[in-house]
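Forgive a beginner's question, but might I ask you for the amino acids of a protein and the tokens describing how it folds?
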Amino acid sequence: MKNIFLLFFLSSFFTSFAQYQIGLIPRTSPDKTISQKIGFTDIKIEYGSPRVKNREIWGSLVPFDEIWRAGANNATTVEFSEDVKVNGKDLAKGKYALFILPRNSTSWYIILSKKHNQWGSFRYDKADDAVRIEVLPINNDFTENLTYRITNRGFNDATIALLWGKIKIEFGVRIDYFKTLENKIEENAKGVNEDIKWVSYLQGGEYLVEQKKKLDLAKKWLDKSEELSKVEGEWNKQYYPRDYILGHLYWTKAKLYALNKDYKNALIYAKKVKTFTGKSSFYSKNDKWEGIDKLMQQWQNK
């Protein structure tokens, strides 16, 4: 009889516990999601947000020297759409569980685990660590609800911060934007018709020229664009006139040569731009905006 009662109790317990897993009852620590795009890279964080509720958090509710889920309910997760560096350490694109090891000392640990789909930190295994970094907890203004923020956003980097109670914990994320750009340009060129490949390389090269970055790669792309521009097709007839895009290409190459202080070739390509005439030519539409004549005069005086 006792065994039957025990089986009934266990069955009822696990059935009840399962109810919490399927969302029949609202969670006291609501689930939250934040996301941000840095360059090409999407960052997404999903977490449960408990409140302080007049409790002592660090070293009590969240014990020192024990792995913590960095939130409530399921393990907190962070997802990157591209490869990144976390505090200087390489991390492949993907979704990770985010754990914290708070310590009663100056430094704590942030852990990104490859086993992201888990409840809390009960099944944490160090063998699943993708990245483990040492950080310093920072004294901060009081925050009642546990909150994640993506701050200090730049073109290639950002900071992920957790705030709860009077502590802030943060780590840096850096994106190799130009490597991602190179991959995307090449992927795009492979996926389009032959008559439009040159426009992909033109766009990539122009971006690098405007940013004044990786000029060797910019030249490689612009040279490839010029070579492929000889291929004609329906695209050229449907959209911008081919002569307009050629003018755009030649002017971009002129600016690239000028950045490299090769003013002789800069002037050669600038003069090519002006050979295309008519109302829709690149020169007629962009002289005032780009300052083509003014820059050519400056290059002649170099």
Notes: The chain is about 40% helix and 25% strand. The beta strands are 31-38, 41-48, 76-80, 84-86, 89-91, 94-101, 108-113, 129-135, 138-151, 157-175. The first helix runs from residue 2 to 21.
